[in-house]
Amino acid sequence: MVMRFIPSYSCVSQKPMNLNYLSKHIAALSKYKTDIKRGFIERPQILPLTSRDAVGLRVFVLSDLHTDYAENMRWVKSISTVRHKKDVILIAGDVAEIYGNFVLTMSLLKDRFEHVFYVPGNHDLWCRREGEDYVDSLQKLNKLLDACRVLGVETNPMVVDGLGIIPLFSWYHESFDREKDITGICIQSLEMACKDFHACKWPAGLSNGDTSLSLYFDAINEKSLNVVKEIQGTCSQIITFSHFVPRQELCPEKRMLFYPKLPKIIGSDYLEVRIRSIHGIQGSGSACHVFGHTHFCWDAVLDGIRYVQAPLAYPRERKRRMNGGEDWLPFCIYSDGNFADRLSPCYWSDYYSANPRTPHNTELAPWVARFYNQT
């Protein structure tokens, strides 16, 4: 997450994305290339299956580890060093702001899991710590990816025991939010509320204020297009994962939020287009996308694709959750050829499975109204 304050019910929303809109944009994906250099593109690496017990391949997912918090680092260290030796884990961003903590965290995970996959989150690219002098956040990104290569952490699409796993780089853009704004209350500006505007450093031409960062990070995925096509042709089951949110309706409406502008700094339309170009416009029962960033457990199917978030989040957030986090994370999304049953409880996705979304309603939820009446 990116907020200076995120009270207990915060999250976000949007109208379902039109499938015709997606079709047109998938056809135009090549339009979004930037100056990223393309190297030689190999066929997808097939990771060998070591001897396993009757359970078969298991894939666990986790996001928003934030191990700069000592309590979260202790949680990572507490993961069994024996139980997951033959398993895969997908880390959907926001590991740590401090480079040393990032390396330690990924090393601990690599010691515990056979295969570790990673995509960067916004906190990972902050450049504000003394003693960590980066030209910009892209230089830090390269340093993190270099560390992953040394540690054996995967950041590219691969096949593990017949399952396609595709990391997707992304960043948010303000125009992702297309819902009616909340008015009548004093809401902090994005620049004041979102630390990314100050903690990230970008070269000329890249900015949080437009779509440039979203396009830049999406274009990183272009270098793996041939690999992705091979995976599509050989794998009947595919898991994609990102840090940022691909659809605004994966979070509640603005009136439910303590910070109603949050939808402007969480997601990317280009990410959803990328996901649909992999899983298909209509999706399928074997299509799953894992994301992070908002720190809310989520498990829902939208237009044929299952979207899952299983965050560790901040210690204070876990203390007030119904389902905590320490005892059931990381979440096993895939086991022995089958996707896991629905993650539950997930407060907001459970709520929307029983109640229609009403994003046109801008009347503040009672807990939000009380919060602003007190400020």
From TrEMBL:
<dbReference type="InterPro" id="IPR029052">
    <property type="entry name" value="Metallo-depent_PP-like"/>
</dbReference>
<dbReference type="GO" id="GO:0016787">
    <property type="term" value="F:hydrolase activity"/>
</dbReference>
<dbReference type="InterPro" id="IPR052963">
    <property type="entry name" value="Pantetheine_PDE"/>
</dbReference>
<dbReference type="InterPro" id="IPR004843">
    <property type="entry name" value="Calcineurin-like_PHP"/>
</dbReference>
<protein>
    <recommendedName>
        <fullName>Calcineurin-like phosphoesterase domain-containing protein</fullName>
    </recommendedName>
</protein>
<dbReference type="Pfam" id="PF00149">
    <property type="entry name" value="Metallophos"/>
</dbReference>
<feature type="domain" description="Calcineurin-like phosphoesterase">
    <location>
        <begin position="57"/>
        <end position="148"/>
    </location>
</feature>
